[in-house]
C-alpha cells in the first residue's frame, strides 16, 4: 500500500507551473523518500501531493522542521480510503477563530480572570469540568443579552464553510461537538451547514446567567463518545471518520479517528497527534482527503 504525502499552506507562495518543482526543495532534504508518482496540484501554490511507497521509512519530522520555516504543513496519510464519511469538529479556536467563553467573559468585564483558566484547561493543566464550572461561576448575575452580543462578533475560521459543505456534498455526515455552549454551537452549526451540534448548556433564570452548567459536562470523553455514537448510527467505522480540534479536550477523539487532525494545536496535541495543520486553514483537512480546490463547495 502507498501513502499520500501532502504539502499545504494558507500563506501566499510563488508557484511554478509544476507541483513537483514547488515541493522539490523540501524533498531534497529527505533523500530516503521513495516517490511513486509525480506531484500534482491540489491548489496551485497552496497545496500539492505526491504518492510515496510506505515500505521505506523516512523522517517526516525532519521534513516538517524544514517546512515550518516556509510556513508549509507536511502530512502523510494512507492513499486508500482518504475521503471520510464522518466529520466531528471542535468549535472554539477551530471552526471559529476564538474561544467563545473567553469572549463572553470579555464582554462581561471578566476577560483576564477567565482567559487564564481557559489557557490552563486547553494545555491539559486543569481538569476540564473544573475549568468550565469555575469560569461559568464568575458569570453569575450577568445578563443573557451578552449571548447576542457574542454571536454578533463571532468569526468563522477561514475554510470552515468549504470544509463542511464539501464533505456534505460528497456524502459525509458532519457534526459540531464542543465543550463550549449550545447557544453558540447551534448558531455556528447553522452557518456552516453541520447536520447537528452538541455542547454544554448554561443555566439561565429571569434573563440572568445563573453561574451553573447543566450536568453532565460535555468533556473530552464525551467528544470521543459522540464519535463512536455517530459511527454506529451511520454504520461506519473509525477508518471512515475525520476529527479536528485544537486543545487537550480534543485529544481522545483525535486519537480514536483514522484522520484525527490537530488544528493549530496546543503543545500537548502537537506532541501526541501526527497529523497537524499549523500553517493551513480548514481547507487543509480537505487536501488531506485528496480534494482539489476545484471540488470545494462554499
Provide a descriptive summary of the structure in words.
By secondary structure, this protein is α/β, with parallel strands linked by helices. The protein has a domain at 1-80: Alpha-Beta Plaits, CATH 3.30.70. It is built from 13 helices and twelve strands. The protein has helices spanning 19-27, 60-68, 91-95, 100-107, 111-122, 128-137, 145-153, 160-169, 182-192, 220-233, 251-256, 267-272, 284-288; strands at residues 2-8, 35-43, 47-53, 73-78, 86-89, 173-181, 196-200, 202-205, 208-213, 241-245, 259-263, 275-277. The strands form three sheets. It has a six-stranded parallel β-sheet, sandwiched between helices. A four-stranded antiparallel β-sheet has the order 2-3-1-4. Strands 8-9 form a two-stranded antiparallel ribbon. A hairpin with a 2-residue loop joins β8 and β9 (208-213). α4 (100-107) packs antiparallel against α5, α4 crosses α7 and α5 (111-122) runs antiparallel to α6.
Helix segment count? Answer: 13
Distance between the termini: 33 Å
Q: Element order, helices and strands?
A: EHEEHEEHHHHHHEHEEEHEHEHEH
E-strand count: 12
Strand content is 15-25%
Mean pLDDT: 94
The whole-angstrom Rg is 20 Å
Estimate the global geometry from the Cα principal axes.
Answer: elongated
Question: Regions with pLDDT < 50 over 5+ consecutive residues?
Answer: none
Residues in helices, as a percent range: 25-40%
| Largest sheet geometry | 6 strands, parallel
- Which CATH architecture of the domain at 1-80? 2-Layer Sandwich
Could you give the order of strands across the largest sheet?
7-6-5-10-11-12
- Structural class based on helices, strands and sheet pairing: alpha/beta
CATH class membership of the domain at 1-80: Alpha Beta
Q: Write down the CATH topology of the domain at 1-80.
A: Alpha-Beta Plaits
Amino acid at each position: 500500500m502507498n501513502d499520500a504525502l501532502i504539502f499545504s499552506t494558507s500563506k501566499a507562495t510563488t508557484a511554478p507551473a509544476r507541483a513537483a518543482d514547488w515541493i522539490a526543495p523540501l524533498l531534497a532534504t529527505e533523500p530516503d523518500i521513495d516517490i511513486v508518482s509525480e506531484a500534482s496540484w491540489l491548489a496551485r501554490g497552496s497545496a500539492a501531493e505526491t504518492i510515496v511507497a510506505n515500505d521505506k521509512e523516512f523522517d517526516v519530522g525532519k521534513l516538517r522542521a524544514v517546512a515550518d520555516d516556509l510556513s508549509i504543513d507536511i502530512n502523510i496519510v494512507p492513499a486508500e480510503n482518504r475521503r471520510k464519511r464522518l466529520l466531528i469538529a471542535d468549535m472554539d479556536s477551530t471552526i471559529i477563530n476564538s474561544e467563545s467563553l473567553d469572549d463572553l467573559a470579555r464582554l462581561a468585564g471578566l476577560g483576564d480572570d477567565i482567559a487564564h483558566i481557559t489557557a490552563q484547561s486547553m494545555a491539559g493543566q486543569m481538569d476540564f469540568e473544573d475549568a468550565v464550572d469555575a469560569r461559568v461561576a464568575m458569570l453569575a448575575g450577568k445578563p443573557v443579552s451578552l449571548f447576542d452580543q457574542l454571536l454578533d462578533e463571532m468569526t468563522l475560521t477561514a475554510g470552515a464553510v468549504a470544509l463542511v459543505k464539501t464533505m456534505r456534498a460528497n456524502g459525509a455526515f458532519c457534526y459540531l461537538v464542543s465543550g463550549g455552549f449550545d447557544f453558540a454551537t447551534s448558531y455556528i452549526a447553522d452557518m456552516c451547514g453541520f447536520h447537528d451540534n452538541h455542547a454544554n448548556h448554561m443555566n439561565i433564570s429571569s434573563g440572568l446567567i445563573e453561574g451553573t452548567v447543566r450536568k453532565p459536562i460535555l468533556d473530552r470523553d464525551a467528544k470521543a463518545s459522540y464519535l463512536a455514537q455517530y459511527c454506529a448510527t451511520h454504520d461506519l467505522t473509525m477508518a471512515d471518520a475525520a476529527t479536528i480540534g485544537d486543545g487537550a479536550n480534543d485529544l481522545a477523539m483525535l486519537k480514536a479517528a483514522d484522520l484525527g487532525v490537530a488544528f493549530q494545536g496546543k503543545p500537548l496535541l502537537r506532541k501526541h497527534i501526527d497529523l497537524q495543520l499549523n500553517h493551513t486553514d480548514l481547507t487543509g483537512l480537505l487536501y488531506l482527503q485528496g480534494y482539489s480546490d476545484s471540488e470545494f463547495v462554499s
